[in-house]
Design a protein that fits this description.
The protein is of the alpha/beta class and about 375 residues long. It folds into 2 domains: about 110 residues, Arc Repressor Mutant, subunit A (Orthogonal Bundle); about 240 residues, 3-Layer(aba) Sandwich (Rossmann fold). The protein is built from 18 helices and 9 strands. The strands form 2 sheets. Strands 5-4-3-6-7-9-8 form a 7-stranded mixed beta sheet, with helices on both faces. It has a two-stranded antiparallel ribbon with strand order 1-2. Helix 13 links the parallel strand 4 and strand 5. The radius of gyration is 23 Å and the shape is globular. It holds the Pfam family Methyltransf_31. It comes from Sulfurifustis variabilis. InterPro entries: Methyltranfer_dom, SAM-binding_MTase, SAM-dependent_MTases_sf, WH-like_DNA-bd_sf, WH_DNA-bd_sf, WHD_Rv2258c. This is Transcriptional regulator.
Length: about 375
């Protein structure tokens, strides 16, 4: 009774009101993420970018969509302060300053791409709740659009700066690729990076490995469509990569946000070291969390990254009977795992356009 009375005395109404207001904003912003995702997937933002102020019917016609749905979507956009509306003319406009962050013309700045994760993760909410109650994990097969969204994500964070910022992290790498070396992408997804490199450097040979048969099939089809003959894709579980990786076969190995959601991440890293030539380089892109929740509270994407980790990265690993390391394992643990895998030198790099990742250059 005394403790209850003390809590009542300590209750701060102003703090409670501020928190309630924050939750209201969270509800609105969560809903807006779904609508922003719809606007991206349907091409509505792209259509509005090139239109003068227009009616809902004109916008629907430009995007080749149903007017009634477009009108309701516009309601969310106007009340969410993304689209402007003139009640006198009943016309809607997407300001150029907003279009810069929600259209495909924005290239690396298109934040609508990331809004798609909310809907994708919402699709497995029931599965995640079941795991909270009974343990286990949610398998990759329950995420039918995840690789599609990841491919778009990669297109912005990796492909957009591959030649200008990422490859230069390894001195002399572009010259070696031009002369002809072997490169491996572990956890390649739909293979966009591998296929880009294979097109840029025809004298080099490229291999991509991923657990997902669907992603590998897509990567192979893309390579065929581009007429690439210096690339191969392999669907494989990498849990035993420490034992079955081809020894000293590759001059350059890369992982792009792929290690933390492996069933056995240490085995993957040991396999990468085994597959790397003595003078080879491993380039590792992974989440820039600290591994300490009180420090990650300062990360600009902290809540999003922990949510993605809980509802995808951690759980797909647990579904394989794996470690469930999670996306926010942090630089400290990343370096620990690299050392345990036997690597002798690790340098942390950061790129100005990439808020969520560290880029590690690692020597055998």
């Amino acid at each position: 009774m005394a403790q209850t009375a003390q809590k009542q005395l300590d209750f701060d109404p102003a703090r409670a009101e501020a928190f309630a207001g924050r939750l209201l904003a969270t509800l609105n912003n969560g809903a807006l993420c779904l609508m922003v995702s719809v606007g991206h997937r349907t091409g509505l933002f792209d259509a509005m970018r090139t239109l003068p102020p227009a009616t809902s019917a004109e916008i629907a016609a430009a995007a080749k969509l149903d007017e009634r749905y477009v009108r309701e979507w516009l309601g969310a956009m106007v009340t969410g302060a993304i689209v402007e509306y003139d009640p006198a003319t009943r016309r809607y406009a997407l300001p150029a300053e907003h279009a810069a962050f929600v259209t495909r013309a924005a290239n690396a700045d298109n934040m609508a791409v990331f809004a798609q994760y909310i809907g994708v993760l919402g699709g497995v909410e029931d599965d995640i709740v079941h795991c909270f109650r009974h343990g286990g994990g949610v398998p990759y097969s329950r995420y039918p659009r995840f690789h599609e969204v990841m491919a778009e994500d990669s297109g912005q964070s990796v492909l957009s700066s591959l030649e200008t910022h990422i490859l230069p992290l390894v001195p002399g790498l572009t010259d070696r690729l031009a002369q002809g070396i072997r490169m491996l992408d572990v956890g390649c997804g739909r293979g966009r990076v591998v296929n880009r490199l294979a097109a840029l450097y025809p004298k080099s040979r490229f291999t991509g490995i991923d657990l997902s048969e669907e992603a590998i099939a897509h990567a192979r089809e893309s390579a065929r469509a581009q007429g690439l003959v210096n690339v191969e894709f392999i669907a494989a579980d990498l849990s035993d990569f420490d034992r079955n990786a081809e020894p000293e076969a590759y001059d350059f190995i890369a992982t792009f946000d792929a290690v933390h959601d492996q069933a056995k991440p240490l085995n993957v890293l040991k396999g990468i070291r085994r597959a790397l030539k003595p003078d080879g380089v491993y380039l590792m892109q992974d989440i820039s969390g600290t591994g300490h929740v009180h420090k990650d509270a300062e990360h600009p994407l902290g809540p999003l990254l922990y949510t993605v980790s809980c509802m995808h990265c951690m759980t797909v690993s647990l579904a394989q009977g794996g470690e469930g390391l999670g996306a926010m394992w942090g630089e400290e643990k990343t370096r620990e795992y690299l050392a345990r895998a036997g690597f002798r030198s690790v340098t942390t790099n950061r790129l100005a356009h990439d808020l969520q990742n560290n880029w590690y250059t690692v020597l055998k």
